[in-house]
Specification:
Distance between the termini: 50 Å
Pfam families: DUF1345
Largest sheet: 2 strands, antiparallel
Protein name: Putative membrane protein
InterPro entries: DUF1345
Structural class: mainly alpha
Helix content: over 70%
Number of domains: 1
Strand content: under 5%
Keywords: Membrane, Transmembrane, Transmembrane helix
Radius of gyration: 18 Å
Strand order of the largest sheet: 1-2
Amino acid sequence: MTMPLLRTTKIQVLIAIIIGGLGYLGFSYFVGQAFGLLGGITLGEVVFLVLSTSTLWPMDASQTQANVTREDLAPIADEVLVALVSFLAMVSVVALHLGTAGGQNGYIVEAVMTLVGVFGAWACVHQTYAVHYAYHYYTGKDGGVDFGSEEKPSFVDFIYLSYAVGMTYGVTDSTVTSRDIRKIALRHALISFVFGMVILGAGVNLVTGIVGIS
């Protein structure tokens, strides 16, 4: 069982930022600023995803409820966090174009790192929104989401809901019954659409770049 302090999103984000920053300094020293930026961002994303998933996934419904009520999240802070993650993904793409190492091997490495960085940021957004949905469900008046089961939802259900919105830009087999959660899902879908375009563009650039230097 993880320590109570490590179960909070803010602490997980702080740890990820610190490790990502150290990774940036280390990568920059050995391979340059551009690749260092990519490496630091990607490392921070991986750390956050590992901490968050390993903490939330095993929780049952009662543990989920207890955890989110302890989070004491603020809607504005949540949106700022998501916007920050989105910005970091865009920085990853810019860093690729500004810091191409030259040569096929160097280009491929940086292009793959960019894809991993953008995908990692995409996953971080959905992980954050999973906590957001759980928080509003257990602190709201009527839950706001019908998962089609009499059992109370655990974090696995909210992670499923979040990734469903992220991949389909809408709610699939769950029913949203709260206007507040509909607003959250709308913002989530819009951000996910932007990420989809960025990931597609990065993938196209990777393929065309490899073909161009072959």
